[in-house]
Amino acid sequence: MKQFFIRFLSISFGVFLFSLGIVLTLKANIGYAPWEVFHVGLSITTGLSIGIVSIIVGLLLLVVVTLLGEKFGFGALFNIIMIGLLIDLKLYLDIIPEMETLLSGCIMLIIGLFIISLGSFFYIQSAFGAGPRDNLMVVLVRKTKIPVGLCRSFVELTATVIGWFLGGMVGVGTILSVIGIGFCIQITFKLFKFDVTKVKHESMRDTINNLRGKG
């Protein structure tokens, strides 16, 4: 139970940072990251909050990847629900100001990407399972045999285009997010000497069995 509690603290801190990073990229006001373009576009269209839209999309993706044979863990559900709720809370509190210039927007966006990367580190090292969007990449690679980079690019481009048509903001920040997130994650993981390939994620069944002492 002690080990579980430490891992739970890690994933909790991770989703807190991840949601904070997303809000910073939104407040940068120079164009959203691909999935945020999609979420904001749906939010504008449906009248639902960005966080609630994020939760609904995440749950739908989780259902799809599960039907396609991919296992999911406790972390996926925790990721979907908590990040969505925390995004709405931080936007509601309105503590982070919206940037009004390109320079300040770029600075805030880069800070946001690094915070997202740091959140990813704490989230992944908890080993509670990948998020639904990551699982979607795995499913597409497995089903189509297309390289993961191309699959990710296709999905994010599709999300961006649909979100843009629905009213989501596409701009310099969108390009910076697509290019910059990989570098930010690489730098962050290198600083922590973190090898993501050594993490063995638990399925939901594994987590339940471990809590019952059957793992």
What are the SSEs and their pairings?
Elements: H1 2-27, H2 34-46, H3 50-67, H4 74-93, H5 102-125, H6 132-144, H7 148-165, H8 172-191, H9 204-211
Helix pairs in contact: 1-4, 1-5, 2-3, 2-7, 3-4, 3-6, 5-8, 6-7
Describe the model.
- The mean pLDDT is 90.
- The protein has helices spanning 2-27, 34-46, 50-67, 74-93, 102-125, 132-144, 148-165, 172-191, 204-211.
- The radius of gyration is 17 Å and the shape is globular.
- Helix 1 (2-27) crosses helix 4, helix 5 (102-125) crosses helix 8 and helix 6 crosses helix 7 (148-165).
- The chain is mainly alpha-helical.
- The chain contains 9 helices and no strands.
- The chain has one domain (2-211).
Class by alpha and beta content: mainly alpha
> What is the count of structural domains?
1
Q: What is the percent of helical residues?
A: over 70%
* Measured distance between first and last alpha carbons: 12 Å
Query: What quaternary form is this?
Result: single chain
* Total count of helical runs of at least 4 residues: 9
Annotation, overall tally of beta strands = 0
**In angstroms, what is the radius of gyration?**
17 Å
Tell me, briefly, the overall form.
globular
H-E string: HHHHHHHHH
Report mean pLDDT, rounded to a whole number. 90
Low-confidence stretches: none
Strand content: under 5%
